[in-house]
Design goal:
The structure is a single chain. With 382 residues, the chain is mainly α. It has a domain of 111 residues: name from scop (3-Layer(aba) Sandwich). The chain contains 14 helices and four strands. The protein has a four-stranded mixed sheet with strand order 3-2-1-4, with helices on both faces. The two termini are 45 Å apart.
Length: 382
């Protein structure tokens, strides 16, 4: 049962899940909000541009109804006049059309924001599966959409019925008024009716917007197993990371071991620590640590040094200090210059003696003096 509960999608979607859904075009959208914004914009546009529409459209209509004998008998002039009237008509409604175009572009982005998802344009042949289509038709989401459409129709129908019933006497009375007064009266009735319809759509949008956000959130919910898998993908599988780290360490160790034969001197503890030093007076300001290690690594450094006839010297205090205070590939600290220089000088003399360039073997140097600040016992402290 514990495994089954883990597979239930009860967890909130992670930021990565939300981002991935957005890339796939899955964002909250409300058709009711778009419908409300478009209708409200249309009503506001007609209200604000009513004077301009009346003047320009009235001029076009009067010009079209005027009879001109020259135009009637001249096809070319008739066509030119029709074109001029069409241009004037388009100019008359251009502000209103501009408002509607802007509204149509902005309204869908009010919920979910502006979105460009190329992945959603890719063909998905799974959507052509008839069985999957039937499943979607009879799904809980389709049932919810059906109930929402019925509720919307009922709300708008009831509002429309009430508006017509309450304004029926006023509309019949406007028919008996003078033309100008009657038209003004009818326009006021239409404006009031539109306001009620827009109010009903606003109510529907206020209910639909939270529902769409909730429905998308429910659809994107994740199980605990999903969260674990996502964490592995984002942070990396610990087993894979551990294997990569071990491989990197092995590679670094091989590169380090390849430097041991080039070393001038290997200092040991004698068993727990080993530090290989190299010095090139033409390229280095001070000797560098080219290899270091403890226990098995230290043993391998000593073996390689002996195989390649690199001098191995037991100097516990200096070996521990170099291991502690010098990173691989770095120059030794200034406080250890004297101690290391004495050992290197002894190694160079020893090489000359072995090569026959000296009469007697050089005396081994005394125990090096380690500054107190650089001394280390070899024990890690918290």
């Amino acid at each position: 049962m514990a495994d089954e509960s883990d597979l239930e999608k009860t967890e909130q979607p992670s930021p990565r899940r939300l981002e991935k859904a957005r890339e796939e075009g899955q964002v909250a959208r409300s058709r009711e909000l778009v419908t409300f914004v478009l209708l409200a914009t249309a009503a506001a546009g007609l209200w604000t541009t009513a004077g301009l529409l009346e003047a320009r459209v009235g001029s076009v209509v009067r010009h079209g109804l005027a009879f001109d004998r020259g135009v009637a008998f001249d096809p070319a002039l008739m066509l030119a006049t029709a074109q001029e009237m069409a241009v004037q008509g388009l100019l008359a409604i251009a502000p209103f059309l501009g408002m509607m175009l802007l509204s149509a572009l902005v309204a869908p982005t009010l919920l979910g924001g502006l979105l460009f998802a190329p992945k959603s344009l890719a063909p998905d042949f799974k959507k052509l599966d008839p069985l999957a289509g039937l499943g979607r038709m009879f799904s809980a989401q389709s049932l919810a959409e059906l109930l929402k459409a019925i509720a919307k129709s009922l709300v708008i129908g009831i509002v429309g019925f009430l508006v017509i019933r309450n304004g029926l006497d006023a509309m019949l009375g406007a028919m008996r008024e003078a033309p100008a007064a009657g038209i003004a009266h009818m326009l006021a009735i239409v404006a009031r009716s539109c306001a009620w319809i827009i109010g009903a759509l606003l109510l529907i949008a206020l209910v639909d917007v939270p529902y769409q956000v909730w429905a998308l959130n429910k659809k994107l919910r994740m199980s605990r197993e999903d969260l674990k898998q996502e964490h592995k993908e984002s942070e990396g599988d610990p087993h894979v990371k551990g294997r990569i780290k071990r491989q990197q360490q092995a590679l670094a160790r091989r590169r380090m071991m390849a430097e041991v034969p080039k070393a001038d001197l290997v200092l040991t503890n004698p068993t727990h620590f080993a530090v290989a030093l190299r010095y090139d007076e033409r390229a280095m300001a001070a000797p560098k640590v080219v290899a270091k290690g403890t226990d098995l690594v230290a043993q391998r450094i000593r073996e390689l040094a002996r195989e390649h006839r690199v001098e191995v010297v037991e100097s516990p205090a200096l070996a521990r200090s170099l291991y502690r205070h010098t990173d691989l590939g770095r120059e030794i600290p200034g406080g250890l210059y004297t101690a290391v220089a004495e050992l290197l000088a002894w190694v160079y003399q020893l090489r000359r003696w072995r090569a026959g360039g000296a009469a007697a073997a050089p005396a081994a140097p005394a125990a090096p003096v380690i500054p107190e600040a650089l001394q280390w016992t070899g024990v890690q402290t918290a």
